[in-house]
Automatic annotation (TrEMBL):
This is Chromosome partitioning protein. CDD domains: ParAB_family. PANTHER family: COBQ_COBB_MIND_PARA NUCLEOTIDE BINDING DOMAIN-CONTAINING PROTEIN, P-LOOP CONTAINING NUCLEOSIDE TRIPHOSPHATE HYDROLASE. InterPro entries: DNA_Partitioning_ATPase, MipZ, P-loop_NTPase. It comes from Cognatiyoonia sediminum.
Amino acid sequence: MAHIIVVGNEKGGAGKSTVSMHVATALARMGHKVGTLDLDLRQKTLGRYIHNRRTFLKDEGLDLPTPDYEDLPEIDQSELKPGENAYDHRLSKAVAGLEPDQDFILIDCPGSHTRLSQVAHSLADTLITPLNDSFIDFDLLAHTDTNGEEITGPSVYSEMVWNARQLRAQAGLAPMDWVVVRNRTGAQAMINKEKMARVIEKLSKRIGFRTAPGFNERVIFRELFSRGLTLLDLRDIGVKGLNISNVAARQELRDLVKALNLPNVTVDF
């Protein structure tokens, strides 16, 4: 059985697709077979990323490890029974098609609540929720008082994850490992950063997730998108003498993959 990684939250701009592409490519470069699905059926940022990668490698005559990517298959409406949802069947069919040949299946969810995203969360062996270090983004997980110190209640997203966990338990599946990844934390020890650390620690114990370090804001991520490359590919395309920012970003990726603690994965980059 492939280990299913779902990258999701219900807010755009948190870095889901950047995390998805880098984690998927890192696993592929470590020798694992990785299949990917993009549930943002309009933008398909992850899908575009992998398309750009395949095109660039072909044009340059390069052969670098690349995750597989599949579009969701169409479903004949006549095959559905009364009350069945076509999106459920599209996702289950896509996962079933990838599973026999993959070690990991990574699913990138849209920054909004959709039926596809809801179902994907129930399939997650590992759920990665990227979060910008901001109380605007934290509101995705829980609501706080006006001082940003005390948690007053869960968010609709946290409740959705709770429901997904319940569905997994009812199906006899192993518990989901939920990892909240803190992106764009910045280097300065600001008051907001300290508050965020405290409230995230409180919430992690309350609703059951782990935290992991994510990516800081770096121009390199945007620059590599058009070629579908990641930080791990730079030396392979002839970039020598990585600058300090690139070295730091590579270390961030290494720390993230280690923190995910995925099965049979030894970080060696």
